[in-house]
Amino acid sequence: MPLVPSYIETLAPYQAGRSAAEVCREYGLERAVKLGSNENPLGPSPHALRAISAALSTLGQYPSGGKELRTALAARFGVRPENVITGSGSEGILSNIIRTFLCDGDEVLTAEPTFIGFRVLAQSRGVTYRTVPLLNWRIDPLRLAGAVNERTKIIYLANPNSPTGTIFTRTEFEAFHSRIPERVLIILDEAYYEYVSHRAEYPDSLFYRHDNVITLRTFSKAYGLAGARIGYGFAHETLISNLLKVKLPFEPSSLAEAAAIAALEDTGWLAATLDANAAGLALVTRELQSLGIHTLPSCANFIMTLWPDAQSAEGVVENLLQAGIIVRPLRAFGVPNGVRITIGTPDDNNQLISAMSRILQQESLLCS
Ligand SMILES: Cc1ncc(COP(=O)(O)O)c(C=O)c1O
User: Fold this and answer.
1) Residue 2 three-state SS
2) Is the CB of 251 under 6 A from ligand 1?
3) Which of 14, 313, 337, 353 is the most buried (most CB within 10 A)?
4) Does ligand 1 come within 6 angstroms of the Cβ of 231?
5) Mean pLDDT of 122-143
6) Residue 10's pLDDT band (boundaries 50, 70, 90)?
7) Reported pTM
């Protein structure tokens, strides 16, 4: 058998959330609600679905490599197509960034807890992965700036962060950026951008146009296209041109590209998604808090809850599964007493609240 480097052998792969079908089978349920992976409960825009159907007839040919979508995104966000990259989800682009910029001996730096995908990708490249703890469950960019050393090549910041749903502000980002050497690439992962872009204190990375910053966004969350695997990024044209050398030439698929272009045009669907999420987030936050559950203030489409200990968090996850509700335990994120819950449809949210209330009456999960 070919030898695998030790950093691959010891790597734990990213574990995606459980699917509704899997949970129905395992628990003998007819229906399960998936609130574990921060997907859009309304699904994709019907416009995007029609575009996929129309694109089926082109499946015999290779796709364009994202050319049309890059043009559409450039027009929408007021940049040039040379400043845009597309890929198989924002994680696909993250993977290309790792392959393009990292050499043996480099280090990457991020906060903890944050999106696990970055750790898996960095460690699969065999580079040193260093983290700085959050401060009051928020990324503290200045702490990260203070941790940069001469080997630091990439800093990864998710804003809003997952699993916390919290953000860092414009003032914090500006103070951070002024302390970071130009040779360090800053990845701003804005997977949940649409849910927070209206807030004045949110540092929309496109506003800054720094040469050492790459913005990552996705169609997986607010656009409801997680299954299509389509994401995009913005950066200086030199940075993008280097990524294009590494990117698989025919990524994204033609179906994903067609869906994304149509989704971008359907501003009504996006607005309905954001309205439904805002109402659901307010309701779920209020109701969970009134049950005595510790919640973090979220700027995204999910909410992080904290429990007295790991055992109670596991108890909640298991009891919710039995009630047909899938949520995300946060042990793998390094928060064993945390549980992340995606905001669902009004029905999903009400089901979650009633199940949680029932579970808390039956089990003593709130006292350690
Ligand atoms: C912060 C963050 N970044 C990236 C991703 C992955 O997004 P994509 O589906 O575009 O690869 C996720 C998914 O949960 C996420 O939470």
Assistant:
1) coil
2) no
3) 313
4) yes
5) 97
6) confident
7) 0.96
